[in-house]
């Protein structure tokens, strides 16, 4: 694998995990945690990372 493919793989995995963590924080219905707003922020960061991955993938091919 080339360096660009390794970078794409790592960035894709990390951004997917960040997005999933944000969605889990939003979906959690435990009132004591108050994680809904933080979940929206973390999920938005994950979406931004995933969208930033698109030009990188287009450039690799």
Give a written overview of the molecule.
By secondary structure, this protein is mainly α. It is built from 2 helices and no strands. It has helices at 3-27, 36-60. The longest helix has 25 residues, at 3-27. The protein is elongated.
Number of helices: 2
In N-to-C order, the SSE pattern is HH
In total, the number of strands is 0
Structural category is mainly alpha
The average pLDDT value, as a whole number, equals 88
Low-pLDDT residue spans: none
Form type? elongated
Alpha-carbon distance between the termini?
Answer: 13 Å
Gyration radius over CA? 14 Å
β-sheet strand percentage: under 5%
- Let me know the largest β-sheet: none
Residue share in helix = over 70%
List the helices and strands and how they pair.
Elements: H1 3-27, H2 36-60
Question: How would you briefly describe this protein structure?
Answer:
By secondary structure, this protein is mainly α. The protein has 2 helices and no strands.
Short key terms for the protein model shown above:
single chain; 61 residues; mainly alpha
């Amino acid at each position: 694998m080339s360096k660009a493919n390794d970078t794409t793989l790592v960035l894709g995995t990390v951004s997917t995990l960040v997005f999933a963590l944000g969605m889990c924080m939003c979906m959690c219905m435990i009132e004591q945690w108050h994680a809904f707003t933080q979940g929206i922020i973390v999920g938005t960061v994950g979406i931004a990372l995933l969208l930033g991955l698109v030009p990188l993938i287009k450039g690799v091919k």
